[in-house]
């Protein structure tokens, strides 16, 4: 097995920065991937764009399950690396991929046979149903190339390597960007495939990530092995992976439900409120990309040091993470505040839509720092094998504070009440995360 990148020694600050920078580019690749598909399909017409939108809930469910399994793999592999337990490293890396493949097979069989009833249930009309079917048939057949890299890249990061997964994601985004217009519109010698072309571009670009992830894990790092494995060992691995994976998957699935409720409240105010909120959600992904990247890479860092019982390094990593989070949050807030009218104008020429966007920025973006503490808290508890605390924090933020408070304040205060409710939920969840993390770390003294 290739020598792993040890995160249990050396400068904590340097390690976090070296892990985070590549992850930023990887996350940028994912954002580009999603935006490009939407952009090119929107050029085909409203029905085509609507068809792609209908596929989102189904895609989200499988992505959430995959990310949950990946989080389980990242936590377990990183702790095994810290403990220098090479047998467990191989078992968890291999068995997480096997679990992902099993779920993919079940999902694909069910999915291919239920396309029409599922999407009819979601409200698909006769006009968009054939388009949805043509897209999903291709997507289901190639779904293994979507899932396995999600799981495998988490194992690679757990070894201390964030550069390779980030490069894989960035290359996939570039390939998808090139193939989308060629296959959708039939450029050069290629036939015009329209929406199925977008599906083929997605599957082909994901095939690259699949191939590279398997190569890295199997041949470079040599941590994939089925020699002498017993079925009871695999079952034990799956139980441990799902113990972390399922709570994370459930939260990722139900979060959009909360966003859906909020969208409904905004729709009762005006269509401009919905549009402005939609712009804010897109811009926000870029604004907190450093915070999001850091929250991903602290899982292998904390996991390795927890496995190696280097508790002082975990405490130091949280202090350094806080510094990075609040510094970048302040910079993001200043930039957004100064340029909010300009940014909003790039997305819409409707003054009311831009006003909603700028209102969101003024109220919510000042709390990005404390939101980052919540994200770090989620990663912290997943890394030390306490996933239900991570899920509890997210559930409280969304369904105990944000949604009920927004429902209560939306009528008297409109968008100001809804956006202030979100900001307040960030504040409370961030404070709760900080309290629970330090309460846990006191047990290590």
What does this structure look like?
The chain has 445 residues and is mostly helical. It has two domains: 10-229, no CATH class; 250-445, no CATH class. It is 85% helix and 0% strand. The chain is built from 15 helices and no strands. The protein has helices at residues 12-42, 46-82, 86-112, 115-121, 129-141, 144-158, 163-185, 195-220, 231-269, 271-287, 289-307, 311-347, 351-364, 368-383, 387-442. The radius of gyration is 22 Å and the shape is globular. The model has no long low-confidence stretch (mean pLDDT 89).
Derived structural class? mainly alpha
**How does the overall form come out from the CA principal axes?**
globular
What is the arithmetic mean of pLDDT? Answer: 89
Count up the domains.
Answer: 2
Short overview:
The chain has 445 residues and is mostly helical.
